[in-house]
Specification:
Elements lengths: L1 E2 L2 E2 H7 L7 E5 L7 H6 L4 E5 L3 H11 L5 E4 L2 E2 L5 E7 L15 H4 L7 E8 L1 H11 L9 E4 L5 H5 L3 H6 L2 E7 L10 H9 L3 E8 L5 E8 L5
Parallel strand pairs: 3-4, 3-9, 4-5, 6-8, 9-10
Antiparallel strand pairs: 1-2, 7-8, 10-12, 11-12
């Protein structure tokens, strides 16, 4: 959760932007960021993770944090759509709906021996379901946090309500064919510009083409 050795919270504070109080995380894995979210003042969130074992750990990490809701689900651009999900050997952290490509060369210690079919739903649909089960959750979240291994645009196409009314987006980004058909950073920048977001911090490994980007809506850039 860092860009140039700074947390996204530090970057927002340095730019005099309000810190997020709520988070919607897609690709939460085993909840590695949960404690940091809590310590930085986030008090409500949905955490999406489709795989069984990481989800169990994620659920444990959310315990004792009111309005932190783990949700075992896959986010896609359309509801009731089935996708192949390629499972990574590193505890599922590098798993994706996209088939690995150069990732196999960059990280030879990570393999993808198995894949399963999972039915997915739009982020906007999942947030509605979450609010129905937990009235303490908002309809829209300050921070939209993605770690979906090249499938960022696929997820965002199902999150129009979140994009229109959220404040910040933090995402892993790629520009080097780590996965087959992964979205390029330039395409994400163009897509999010139409929703009023500007990139305010970016880090990219020029060799591997991987990095992280933090966006803020224009009306917050005063």
């Amino acid at each position: 959760m860092k860009i140039l050795n700074q947390s996204l919270f530090s970057i927002l504070a340095q730019q005099a932007l309000g810190l997020p109080k709520t988070v919607l995380q897609v690709g939460a894995s085993a909840g590695q960021e949960i404690d940091e979210f809590w310590s930085e003042g986030i008090r409500a969130g949905i955490f999406l993770e489709p795989l069984d074992i990481p989800f169990e750990i994620l659920t444990q990490r959310c315990e004792g944090k009111p309005n932190f809701l783990p949700l075992q689900a896959l986010a896609l651009s359309k509801d009731n759509t089935e996708a192949d999900f390629f499972i990574a050997s590193n505890g599922g952290q590098s798993s994706s709906i996209l088939e690995p490509n150069k990732h196999l060369n960059y990280y030879p210690q990570v393999s993808f021996k198995d894949s399963i079919k999972i039915k997915g739903y739009q982020v906007d649909t999942l947030t509605k379901i979450a609010k129905q089960s937990n009235r303490g959750l908002p309809s829209v979240y300050d921070l939209f946090f993605l770690d979906v291994q090249g499938a960022e645009l696929e997820v965002m196409k199902g999150a129009s309500n979140q994009l229109l009314h959220g404040r910040y987006i933090y995402s892993e980004v790629c520009d080097g064919d780590g996965y087959k058909g992964d979205v390029r950073l330039t395409d994400l920048l163009i897509f999010l510009r139409s929703f009023g977001y500007k990139a305010i911090a970016l880090e990219l490994d020029s060799e591997k083409g991987y990095g992280n980007c933090l966006w803020s809506r224009e009306h917050d850039l005063s």
